[in-house]
Amino acid sequence: MAVQILPKRSETSLAVPAANALEVGELAVNITDGKFYIKKSDNSVKEVGGAGSVTLNDVVTNGAFTTADILLDQGARLVFEGNLANSYETFLTVAEPTADRTITLPNQSGTVAMDGDALAYGIVFGG
Predict the structure, then answer these.
(1) Which residues contact 42 (CB under 8 A, 6 or more apart)?
(2) At 10, which helix (H) or strand (E)?
(3) What is the mean pLDDT of residues 100-117?
(4) Quick one: pLDDT at residue 41?
(5) Are 89 and 80 in contact (CB under 8 A)?
(6) Are 49 and 30 in contact (CB under 8 A)?
(7) What is the pLDDT of residues 10-19, one digit of tens each?
(8) 90 alpha carbon, distance to own chain's centre
(9) pLDDT (mean) for 96-112
(10) Phi/psi zone of residue 121: left (φ > 0), alpha (ψ -120 to 50 degrees), beta?
(11) C or N: which end of the chain has fewer Cβ atoms within 10 Å?
């Protein structure tokens, strides 16, 4: 009879096993998310294999970072919630590009001027 190997498993969405729940090299699976995890020798737990679908929210929630481009496709936008979780947010989006464009934010603190703000326009463009 064949030996059946079952990794530790969870069916709780977004659950990542705690380091103290695994031995070094032990495999765990989140069945709901379809993700595998392994405990490394430095006692950290890392997702292994293909991530399937990772959202920007997953990256932010897990405190991860990337040095690669992040593609927001088909009208996706960044949503900024203020200090209060209410029905008011600020959305950052882009008009349909007709060529490759680059917007560089300056290396300084301040407020970004908006189209239609006569005072900001006068300061920035001297008009």
Answers:
(1) none
(2) strand 8-10
(3) 84
(4) 92
(5) yes
(6) no
(7) 899 888 899 9
(8) 18
(9) 88
(10) alpha
(11) N
Task: Tell me which residue of 63, 96, 62, 60 sits closest to 78, measured CA to CA.
Answer: 60
d(CA 41, CA 53): 27
CA-based nearest residue to 8, from 45, 54, 52, 53: 45
The predicted structure's pLDDT at residue 79: 86
**Could you say which DSSP state residue 98 is in?**
S
What would the pLDDT profile of 24-58 be if each residue is shown by its tens digit? Answer: 989 999 888 888 899 999 999 988 865 555 666 76
Return the number of other C-beta atoms located less than 10 Å from residue 41's C-beta.
7
Determine the Cα–Cα distance for residues 123 and 96; give it in Å rounded to an integer: 28
What amino acid is encoded at 101 in this protein? Answer: R
Structure tokens at 74: 């088909």
